[in-house]
Amino acid sequence: MTHAIAHRHTPSTWRRRLFAGLAAALLPGLVWANWAKVGESELATLYMDRSSIQREENVVRVWEIQDLKAADGDGVRSRRYLNEYDCKYQMYRISNVTSYAGPMLTGQKLFDLETKGLWRKVGGLSPFTLSFVIHCGR
């Protein structure tokens, strides 16, 4: 009988295990709490960091994650970058790109580029178009 009692969980042990399990389950969500899904295509899912949105006249800057369904030719599966949307001229450009081998910015860091890309026209049915509409209201 003492053997059975020795292995029995006390209420405090049970609570500690429950708390540890809940913390493990909830922590990933807390890390990504400011990231919101913008849209999805057959190739990728686009997320934006709601807390990073900055507006300056006609330009909106926001950090985004592109989570690819499969790795591209360079082995990139996900990337994070600063996207600038020009609401007046309906254009966007990305900079500060960091690319990873795993989904949602996990795995080995493959590339880290700080340069600003060229301004590109927003158009078509892409996640960038959806993000433009969200930020610029068009």
CATH T-level fold name of the largest domain: Lipocalin
The rough form would be described as globular
Order of helices and strands: HHEEEEEEEEH
In whole angstroms, how far apart are the ends?
Answer: 73 Å
Number of strands: 8
Chain-averaged pLDDT: 82
Helix content: 25-40%
CATH architecture of the largest domain: Beta Barrel
Q: Count the helices. How many?
A: 3
- Counting structural domains, the number is 2
Describe this structure in words.
- With 138 residues, this protein is α+β, with helices and mostly antiparallel strands.
- It folds into two domains: 2-31; 35-136, Lipocalin.
- The chain has three helices and eight strands.
- The chain has helices at residues 2-7, 11-31, 127-136, and strands at 35-40, 44-49, 54-56, 59-68, 78-86, 91-100, 109-113, 120-121.
- A hairpin with a 4-residue loop joins strand 5 and strand 6 (91-100).
- The longest helix is centred in the N-terminal third of the chain and has 21 residues, at 11-31.
- It starts with a helix and ends with a helix.
- Mean pLDDT is 82; it is low at 1-7 and 12-31.
Could you outline the blueprint of secondary structure elements for this entry?
Blueprint: H1 2-7, H2 11-31, E1 35-40, E2 44-49, E3 54-56, E4 59-68, E5 78-86, E6 91-100, E7 109-113, E8 120-121, H3 127-136
Antiparallel strand pairs: 1-2, 2-4, 3-4, 4-5, 5-6, 6-7, 6-8
Name the features.
8-stranded antiparallel β-sheet, Lipocalin, 138 residues, alpha+beta, disordered N terminus, 3 helices
